[in-house]
Each structure stands twice: as C-alpha cells, then as structure tokens.
Here is the input.
Amino acid sequence: MNLSALLTSAGINIAISVSLFLLYSVLRKQPSNVSVYFGKKLAKHKGHFSLERFVPSPSWILKAWETTEEELLELGGMDAVVFIRMLVFSIRVFCIAAVICIFLVLPVNYHGKDMIHKKIPSESLEVFTIANVKEGSKWLWVHCLALYIISCSACFLLYFEYKSITKMRLAHITRSIVNPSYFTVLVRAIPWSPKQSYSDSVKEYFMNYYASSYLSHQTVYRIGTVQKLMNDAEKICKVFKRVPAEHNSNWNSFRCHLCVLASNPLTILSNETERQKGNVRSDVMDSAAEKVRNREYPTAFVFFKTRYDAIVASEVLQSANPMLWVTKIAPEPRDVYWSNLCIPYKQLWIRKIAILLAAIVFMFVFLIPVTFVQGLTQLEQLSHALPFLRGLFKKKYVSQVVTGYLPSVILILFMYAVPPTMMLFSTFEGAVSHSGRKKSTCIKVLYFTIWNVFFVNILSGSIIAQLSVFSSVKDVPRHLAEAVPNQATFFMTYVLTSGWASLSVEIMQPFLLLCNILKKFILQMKEDPPDCTLSFPYHTEVPRVLLFGLIGFVCSILAPLILPLLLIYFVLAYFIYRNQIINVYIKNYESGGQYWRIAHKATIFSLVLTQIIALGVFGLKRSPVASGFTIPLIIGTLLFNAYCSQRFSPTFKQLAAQVFMDMDRRDQQDGRMEEIYEQLQSAYPKFQLSRKLCKAAHKNHNENSCKDVHTNCTEARESIPDSEAVPQPVNEIAS
Here is the structure.
C-alpha cells in the first residue's frame, strides 16, 4: 500500500466523522431528541432541562473539558474516572512517543537505504517503516534509544497513575459509609439437611461460630409463581393508571394497596384470598410461608454487626470441605445479578471449563473472516484468486479503497458480534454481579481482539500457516519482527476506521436515535424519556482503548506514522466519552476501579511484546549492540510489574481491615450503627418492581397527592406485623 491509499482511507473516515459530528450538533438541540442525548439528566432532573436544548453545539466540547474529576466521579462513579484516566495516560505516553519517533526514528527509516525516492504521496508506506533500514546500519541505536524513552516514560506514568487510583479507591471505600455490601457476606453451597430448611441451617451455623458478630440473614428463593403474580400486578397497574380523574379517591386507595403488595410480594397469595373472603386468615399466611420454605436455594445473604466482622468471615475458610459454606463479600444490592444465584456452586468449575472451550472454538471460527480480510490487503493474491475482478482492480481509486478502507470495515463489522457473545459466555459462567459479569466480558473481549486483530493479522493469511507459524519458541521474535512492519499499514487503516469513525458513531447513538424516531414519529408516542437508561459499555470500550495502546507501542519505532493517528483518536475519545458520561450514561453499578488492573496488565504486556519484537528486529538487522541493550529493558519492565503487583494490586483484590475498623469505630462513636442495621434489613433483595409499580401508580397525579399516597403506602407497609412478614423472593425483573 502506498501513502495515497492511506490518505484515501483517512479522507473517507474524516468525511464520515465530520459529517456525523455536525449532524450530532444539530440533532442534540432538537427537543424530540432530548431523551437520546440527555437521557441521564432527564432521568435525574425532569423538567429542568429546557434551556440547554438551545445551547450552541460547540458547547459540549467546552463542557466536557471544564468538568472536574470530582464532578465526573459523582456523575459516573469511579469506573468512569478510571476509564478517562486510561485515555489521559495514553495521550501522555503517545505524545512523548510521537515527538521522539516522528523527529528521530522516521527520518532514519525514510533514509535507511540508498534509493531514489518518489514523490511523498506515491511512496510506499514500507519506506517509512524500519523495514527500509538496511542490515548492520549504525543508526539502529536511534530505535533502541526511542524504545528506552517510551518504555521508561510508560512505566513512570503507570506508577503514578496506579498510586493515584489506589488512593482514589481507598477514598471511595471510606466515602461509602452506608454501603450495605460491606456488612454483608454472600454464602453459597449451604449443606442440605432433611431436618431443617436452608434458612435454619444458616442461622444455626452463624449463631454457633459467629455469635458475637452475626446480625441476621436473608435466604434466596425461587421466584416461580410469585414472579408471575408480580408481573400480573404490573399489568394491572398499567390498566388502572388510565382511570379518569373523577375516580381519584378510589385510585389512591388502589395504588396504596398495590404498593403494599409490591413491597411484600409473597403475601400476594394470601392477600388474593383475603380479598375473596373479606378477612385475614393466619392459616393462609402459614401455607404461603411453607411454600416459600420449600423453594429455598442453598444461598443466603448474611449480615454482620461490623464491616470488620464481615470481611473476616468472607476471607476465612468456613469448612474443612472447601466446596461447602463458600463465602465472599456480597455485591451491592443494585449490582447483584439475581438469576445466577440459583446456580449450584459445584457447577461453576464445569461451566468455566465449558466456556473456555467455547471461547477457543469461537476464536478459531473467527479466523475465517480475519483471513478473508487479510487477503484484501494483498491485491496481487486477490487478483490471482478472483481473475474476473482484475480489470476493476486496475483502477487506481478502486484499488486504494479495497486495500486501504475495505479490510478494516469488514473486520469491524464482524467484531460487532464479539461483545454480545462474550457477555453471554460470562453470564453462563456464573457471575453473581453485573459489574463482575461486565468485567469478565471485558477480559474475554480484550483477549479475543488482541489475538484476532493483532496476532492473526500480522501473520500469514493462511489458517494452516497461522497454526504452524510458531514451530519453536525461539522463532517467535523473528516471525513477529518480519510480520509487524509489513502489516503496519493495515493497523493504520484499522485505527482510522475502528477508532475515528467509531467515536462519531458513539456520540450519535444511532440505535437510540432510530428507536426515538420510531417512537415519536411512527408510533406517535409522546412519553419522554424512556424508563431505562444506558450504563457505560466498559466491556467494549476498554478493550478497544487497550488494543490501540498495544498497536501504538508495537508500531512506535517500527512504523511511526501511526502515532499521530492514534493521538488524534485518544484526544477525540477523551472529549466524547466525557460528554457521554456527563449526559448519556447512568451509573447503575460499578466495580470500584477494577478496570485499572486490566489496563495495567495490558500495558505491561504491550511493552514487553514491543521489546521482544524490537529484539527480533534488531537481530534481523544484525545489530548486536541494540539487541544487547534491549534485554535489560525487558527484565526491568518485568521487575517493575512485579513491584506494582506487590505494592498496589492487593488493594484491588482485598478490602483493608484497617480501613474497615476505622470506619466501624467512627460509626459507633457517632451513633450511626442502629440506623445502618435498619437499612440492612431491607437492603437485599432490591425491590425494583416496587419502585416501578409505585412510579406508575403515581404518574398521572400531582406532586402533593403523590407525597400523601407515598406516606400512606409507607405506613401501610410498616403496619404489617413481623410475625406475618415472609422472607422476600429474589427476583430479576429490570436486569
């Protein structure tokens, strides 16, 4: 590929990006699209957003720039701040790399061989890579020096980012004073006993071994018939909310009763009987309670009196059989993935093995489209395989589009199927939290993209060759050193298409926009905004950023022309994702900054791989001095990673007892413990249906009436005697 083909690809992507940015600046000001581009603000501040609809379009860039990290932390949570820190780190390190490589390495590559150069647009891109440097050149020390500067700068920035994010995580924990998960332990694999229920077993066990610290527990139940009744209640609510205004008095009575049923859904069976018979019967409640006991799962949430007691119980091996009484700190109530709590603990290792095999099969099946894409970059081979297209390929513009733009577009289209597939794998694997499922998906997608986008593309286009290319471990650097400079052109076009164009698609939100157009103009629906808002897609965007980081490090000294393209991508991503976090995405749950560990490991891997490939390149170019200086750099990078793993990583894996003890003492001194205990009793499960029902019931009434009915509903719920309260079922309704 020559430089003109790269410029063609860049021109197409720039035109697409600029057009979408301009279209966004117009669409975001339209009142009908407020729910698409400002859904987060509408969800939090309904009725206070009219003025911002008419703000000039460039203001979103200024707003994204002016928003402080503290505001971003409040709006998007710690995971959002960590993601932005990844972009800031990438901007800093690749600014350094671009300056060094463009002004030092690129001239050496361009003049590496004695040759007559063509005009710049007609030059082959290989002229700008290290492949143009002749063997034994004394100028290879420039590449080695640039590699040292980039590696040391990356490690320096990584250290301070890791240190800063670790402090931020500790501050995040200490700020979450009333977080119920810190007092709660998730217990799984409760042993079955024919003499007593799982609930009784949990109470007996923890009263026996944790008598001084045990507070209470909540058993997990099957939902079955109860779920059906709750869904029916929701349908009834939708019907009755259209009652005319003259029936407000009867409607208020009904919606109050509906809130009582939603808050205690297992009493629906008995309440239906009560309405038929006109009185309350204790035998019905006893029958309902007996049905509940027969539908228990061997899983429970156990509440402790202090955070320290909870963390000790979660870390200690509870039984001589490690497959029984398995404990871990519970996720936050809004983070629990309820449907996976029913999975027997003994099945988890089988599921993990099955998912590993399925992921490997999927990875190799994906070689087919990747191999096809690789063939498009080799126009001579493509013309030989498809002789009827030779005449078309002779046209200059067609050949530039086919080699410079089409391959990356086809690969991106195939890659859209990867995140949903990996999310399905992670769900089947048994994650008990939404954040854990998304983090697991992020890791799978990262591995998949690194293998299929990077390694498979830099090797031969033949599947057989790809399977046999690493016949010996010692041949790995040599094969990579030969392949990477040749495929650097593909990575440039991939950054343009998957990077620049994807950012413009991200800010446009085409799916939400089409749904909004269908809703407003086709179906003539006037409700605004939609009930559910989007959470940030970390499982797709984090792997994309880290993959571009890998490509940038590897190609920095081998093909420096890619660095300005990457730098533009990271700067655009910084503004666009800040805008999306501020206006679009809502924080439903978070992992507490766990994505930074993924970013750190991926960056270290990228650095080491870059150094290994550079070692192979220096060996091919017969430069023993450069090769000799590269080996200590690899060792130093690995030692730096080992230090960070010892110094910072444990803070993300475990919760510090010292921090929790200080928080417990402070709460005890301030007298907040009793208030926290009261909140724990209703923390698990989270009644998403109750909120939906009450929200729908109150929807068409004024604010004062809503307050009155809410008070009546609260009093009605509190009036239910404790003896009649039946343990609530775990439900997954608004997942």
